[in-house]
Specification:
Length: about 100
């Protein structure tokens, strides 16, 4: 089972919106039974980033974890969502 974390600054507002959209997308891809979704705030996850296969964030992240985090803002703006989902998919397909 793959682990996908969605985080924002507070773990409440934007991550809830993004989690809903990602959940719907996983269902469309037939992946809802292969991926566990987690939702949290950035400060709670800084030391646990490596516990997840894919991390999507709607807030800025520190440089030391930037390469492990996918920008989730496209799901809020509607611009660049396809590319963002491709990144998520490639992260989920990594061994």
């Amino acid at each position: 089972m793959k682990k996908l974390l969605i985080m924002c600054g507070t773990g409440i507002a934007t991550s809830t919106v993004v989690t809903g959209k990602v959940k719907e997308w996983l269902k469309e891809q037939g992946l809802e039974n292969e991926v566990s979704l987690y939702q949290s705030k950035l400060t709670d996850e800084l030391n646990r980033i490596d516990d997840y296969d894919v991390v999507v964030s709607t807030t800025l992240v520190p440089d030391n974890i930037k390469d492990k985090v996918i920008d989730g803002v496209p799901l809020l703006t509607g611009i660049g969502t396809e590319e963002m989902y491709e990144e998520v998919l490639s992260g989920l397909n990594k061994e």
